[in-house]
Amino acid sequence: MKRFTLTALALTLSSVVAADNIFIQNAMVHTIGDKGLLPNANILIRDNKIVAVGSDVKADADSRVINADGRFVTPGLMNAHTGLGTIEIEAIDDTVDIATDNEDFGAHFDVSDAINPNSPLIDYNRMMGLTRAVVTPAVSHGVFGGRSTVIHLGDSELVDLTGVAVVARLGESAPGASEGSRATALMMMREAFEDARDYAQNKSAYLRGDHRDYRLPYRDLEALLPVLNGKVPLVVSVDRASDIRAVLKLAKNFGIRLILVGASEGHLLAKEIADANVLTILAPMENTPGSFDTLYATLENAAKLHAAGVKLAFTSNAGDSPSHNAHLVRQGAGNAVAYGLPAEAALAGLTRNPAEAFGLGERYGQIAVGFDADIVIWSGDPLEVTSYPDHVLIKGKEMPRVSRQTLLRDRYKNNPADPARVYQK
Fold it and tell me: Which keywords has UniProt assigned to this entry (predicted)?
């Protein structure tokens, strides 16, 4: 038996079909754009981009043809709140890089430097149809966790965009709440933005030592300036209705573009969230009261928020930053559909909505001319839990449906007679 080495594993997992001209024919295409659902449609891909979509599109002479045979086709899916590439085994601290315990680093902590492109979890989630993800730093002290990064799950450098948001947490699980009251965390956040605004107006004097001190280091204040200027959103994990209302008020007062994560009780103030034009990232299957912050959690949360006009995105676990099963975001969205959310709204929440919120809206999230060719061909309805991807393309390259799990399966499957052979050199 050949030696099974880590090198061979890495080479196998990183191999992809080289980008070429691809023609997908006879597909039921969810464009997630102005064209809506296109039956019997074709997609022409050239140079990693979608160049044509429609029933009358023809293949190039050198196109590799994939016959969808009437199957559903969607953009590659996106999880808007993950720890992909920064968490391997949560119980082993040395493999967890999603947060910093150094109190000198808060809002300006950049998680992108810790992302491991060779994590086996990348391949596993990719073969399940996930092609993009937001890597969200966890909050370990204070109220700010750091800055988020968008990755693609392809074969090259994974980091797509850095510094796409600043992350914070409120509620009973916020570190700031441990100082006596959940109001402490909100006061810390308000003071931070007041100081950042003052810092912007007096930066030169502060750096000369001729201005008052601030609670946060200047690097954190610098990280908050793009939030105050509206260039990037503030992403706040929060569940209780009263805390949601408080952060909505804070965002309005400072002119901040806000994104909510969790929002288990969001349906109680759906109109207020809609009126504030706040994207809400939900984990639709989290419907039981895990704490006093989520007493009014319901499986109908997504449907009620959508009915009020709230734009949605999805995660597979709002409490933590999921990594192992980030692809289950699709199952959660399907569950929301079972409880009243329209299917098109669910698919938009898996693609276009998070793309627009985190700076990718002009090149990813739709099957449209000029967009990156992130495409999945499904065995059935993409929101049905028993469906699976038959083909996954990222930026025009077809990805192998291979992971560490499938390699181990095939290795043992092909040597069933003698278990001792597993360890033979």
Answer: Hydrolase, Signal
- Tell whether 6 is covered by a domain: no
Are 101 and 215 contained in the same domain?
yes
Mean pLDDT of 104-111: 87
User: 97-127 as b/e, with b when 16 or more CB fall inside 10 Å?
Assistant: bbbbeeeebbbbbbbbebbbeebbbbbbbbb
Question: Using one digit for the tens of pLDDT, what is the confidence trace for 141-150?
Answer: 789 999 999 9
Which residue would you say has higher pLDDT here, 318 or 66? 66
Q: What is the distance between the alpha carbons of residues 153 and 367, in angstroms, rounded to a whole number? A: 18
Q: Output the six-digit token pair for 348.
A: 């938009």
Mean pLDDT of the chain: 90
| 167 shares its domain with 256 | yes
The CA angle 163-305-339, to the nearest 5 degrees, is 115
| Helices marked H in 309-425 | 329-338, 343-349, 352-357, 404-413
Query: For position 378, which CATH number holds?
Result: 2.30.40.10
> Could you tell me where the beta strands, DSSP code E, fall in 34-98?
37-46, 49-54, 64-67, 72-75, 77-82
Is 310 a residue whose pLDDT tops 50?
yes
- pTM here? 0.91
What's the CA gap between 59 and 25, in Å, rounded?
9
Tokens encoding 119:
């994590």
Question: Does residue 173 surpass a pLDDT of 80?
Answer: no
d(CA 356, CA 341): 20
Residue 187, Cβ neighbours under 10 Å: how many?
14
Which residues face 166 on adjacent strands? 147, 234
Q: What end-to-end distance do the CA atoms of the chain give, in Å?
A: 7
Tens-digit pLDDT profile for residues 95-105: 777 777 777 67
Provide the domain count of the chain. Answer: 2
Left (φ > 0), alpha (ψ -120 to 50) or beta: where does 309 sit?
left
Q: What distance in Å separates the CA atoms of residue 97 and residue 115, rounded to the nearest whole number? A: 8
Q: Which of 308, 307, 390, 383 is nearest to 351 (CA)?
A: 383
- Length of the chain in residues, anyone? 425
Phi, psi of 221 (to 5 degrees): -60, -40
Looking at residue 54, its pLDDT comes to 97
Judge if 290 and 350 occupy the same domain.
Answer: yes
Structural tokens at position 116: 């491991």
Residue 156 lies in a domain: yes
Could you tell me which residues come within 8 angstroms of residue 154 by beta carbon, excluding any fewer than 6 positions away?
A: 16, 126, 131, 394, 395, 397, 399
